[in-house]
Amino acid sequence: MTPPEHVASAIPCVLVFTQRERVRTLVRDAFPRRRTRLILARTAGEFAESFRLTLIDAALVDFGALTDETWHVSALAREFPSVPFLAMLPLRLSDGPILARCATLEFADILIDGIDDTALRDLLVPHFYSMRFAVALQQPPEPLNLESRMQRDAWRYIVAHAGRPVRTAGLAASIGVTREHLSRTFSSASAPNLKRVIDLVRLISAAELAKNPGYDTRDVARILGFASASHLSTTAQRVVGTRPTSLARLRTIDLIARFSKGRTRSRS
To answer: What CATH number did the domain enclosing 106 receive?
Structure first.
């Protein structure tokens, strides 16, 4: 599937667990700062803490220097199933048990050390949380009535952020209109207003992340840039009529249905 427009507007974050300088250099070369944020963790503690500080798009675990900490890190794949975990290993004959265990932990992919090096970025990007989120929501749901080109371009910019905060000035610039024009015309006809659509997309992401056993409401609020857990709570009540603790049981289609029933307008 072709990636949606404006995906590059949201900077993804890749978390890497490795003890090897060669791998650290490899991922730095594959993911330049302007295009990707890298977190390079040397300990299991650093790796685990990163999930509670920012939205992680993919986690790469280096098995080239296997230790007990490598397995502690790998076990987090079950705590954060929304985040794709990928393994890097030399694929020696003796690596069969590692492959089997990674499969049990539902790793998204295995990268072969020394073979997949030059294609590292191309292999990881399709797995990114932000990318999968944007692709899944590439077309605005029909109940939102976003039919004009401007509305659809704005929608794709918003979903490219995967629930991260969206600045309307940046959104307007990306689609070639003024901020005032965007705010005034986005909610034409029966479409929701812009602020409510941004909040809806953030809550769709919050609902997805809330399904992860490793996250609580405060974690979800923090990594998606809400001011606090109470801010997430008031937003959820206002936009979809539910408490944050109930988000985990709701599907995207459920959230959109709730939103469409009289909750599409707010003050500009």
So the answer is: 3.40.50.2300
